[in-house]
Design the sequence.
């Protein structure tokens, strides 16, 4: 047996042996042809499905120096359902669906969910579950077959030890992304601006990670306005800059009266004369537009008013954008005070329609030692940067209205870690 043939047989024994039929990254239709190509080229890293250990073994057979390879796995750059999955579900392949085209309101860059990628995976590493492709990282070899089979070109190979991912491929502008997909990147650039390693770039309105630079820190995940960056190391419910706050304590129980009128959407309240119904013109209607868009189950209607669970909230702002009455604001996540009232009425009207809201007396602003409270249209507005959480405003409030946000100590420790990352760029963001 010739040395060349012997080498080819030994190399073939090391290859995966699943025959990717020409759609894998090696460019050969069968593993036997790949083994011949490796032997002839002297390149031990032709097959992307080979681990670094296998490449070392092939290099030894060839009598050449090994090359550094990184074990990779497939990742689908889409997390939503906006690409017309339900409408296109009766078609056979993703190629058929793409040819059929997308309609207004659908994301033309997203995962179609018909599983063309799963059909070419010879390692049983991809499955289709309810229109979503699920990847088993332990089984995936990074052969690239799925990447080449995807007509949307939204599958990429990422390092197996990567912990941060951006599940979006959209090139749409911000307004269109908000309209079509709750999970999409809006290209705001906050992640790029604050990455201490310069590992994130906005390319065609979508964030892209350079894994050669990424160290898996928390910066991009926290700074992401949409909170769509997947971070396997950090819990975003604990490490965050902002959380949502509802500027209403819910004294008028508006939702009960509005529901008797057949109104089920907060956006339809604009034409209702709330005061004539004995309701606050500025309060939460409790009809739940905000709860319908929250991906983190962090906001609910309780006793007729929207309330935020700050332990679950990650500060994505979707509820704020969904509220047609501007009842929800984003504020610092730390131990500061909040005033849950949005009224602009005169004191007599305030007291008529709500027995628990702010009466605009101004005692809190007058007594604040740091001048952190300003009366705006009869309502106290607290400056987070000045508030030291001394508690005086809560003490003097005659309605016991001013709420304190309590943050556990271990959360402060995680936030301190983020400050260190930011300091690498000479900036302190908090």
Sequence:
């Amino acid at each position: 047996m010739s040395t060349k043939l012997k080498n080819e047989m030994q190399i073939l024994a090391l290859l995966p042996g699943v025959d990717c039929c020409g759609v894998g990254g090696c460019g050969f239709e069968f593993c036997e042809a790949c083994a011949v190509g490796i032997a002839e080229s002297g390149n031990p890293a032709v097959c992307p499905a080979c681990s670094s250990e296998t490449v070392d073994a092939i290099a030894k057979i060839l009598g050449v120096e090994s090359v550094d390879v990184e074990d990779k796995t497939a990742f689908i750059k889409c997390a939503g359902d906006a690409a017309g999955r339900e409408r296109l579900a009766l078609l056979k392949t993703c190629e058929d669906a793409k040819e059929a085209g997308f309609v207004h309101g659908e994301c033309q860059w997203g995962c179609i969910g018909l599983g063309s990628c799963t059909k070419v995976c010879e390692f049983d590493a991809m499955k289709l579950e309810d229109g979503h492709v699920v990847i088993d990282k332990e089984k995936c070899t990074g052969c690239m077959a799925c990447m080449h089979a995807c007509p949307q070109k939204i599958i990429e190979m990422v390092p197996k030890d990567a912990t941060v991912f951006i599940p979006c491929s959209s090139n749409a502008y911000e307004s269109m992304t908000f309209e079509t997909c709750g999970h999409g990147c809006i290209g705001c650039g906050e992640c790029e601006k604050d990455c201490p390693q310069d590992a994130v770039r906005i390319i065609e309105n979508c964030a892209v990670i350079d894994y050669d630079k990424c160290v898996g820190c928390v910066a991009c995940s926290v700074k992401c306005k949409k909170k769509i960056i997947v971070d396997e190391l950090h819990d975003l419910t604990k490490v965050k800059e902002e959380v949502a706050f509802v500027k209403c304590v819910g004294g008028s129980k508006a939702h009960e009266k509005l529901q008797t009128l057949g109104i089920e959407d907060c956006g339809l309240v604009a034409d209702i004369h709330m005061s004539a119904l004995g309701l606050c013109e500025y309060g939460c209607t409790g009809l739940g537009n905000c709860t319908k868009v929250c991906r983190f189950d962090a906001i609910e209607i309780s006793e007729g008013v929207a309330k935020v669970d700050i332990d679950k909230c990650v500060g994505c702002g979707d509820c704020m954008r969904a509220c047609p009455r501007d009842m929800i604001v984003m504020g610092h996540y730390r131990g500061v005070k909040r005033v849950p009232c949005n009224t602009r009425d005169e004191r007599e009207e305030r007291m008529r329609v709500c027995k628990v809201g702010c009466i605009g007396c101004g005692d809190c602003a007058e007594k604040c030692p740091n001048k952190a409270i300003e009366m705006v249209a009869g309502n106290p507005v607290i400056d987070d940067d000045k508030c030291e959480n001394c508690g005086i405003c809560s003490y003097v409030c005659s309605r016991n209205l001013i709420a304190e946000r309590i943050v556990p100590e271990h959360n402060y420790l995680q936030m301190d870690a983020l400050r260190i990352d930011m300091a690498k760029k000479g900036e302190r963001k908090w």
Observations:
- Residues 30 and 82 are 37 Å apart (CA to CA).
- Residues 3-62 form a domain with the 3-methyladenine DNA Glycosylase II; Chain A, domain 3 fold (CATH 1.10.15).
- Residues 409-423 form the longest helix (15 residues).
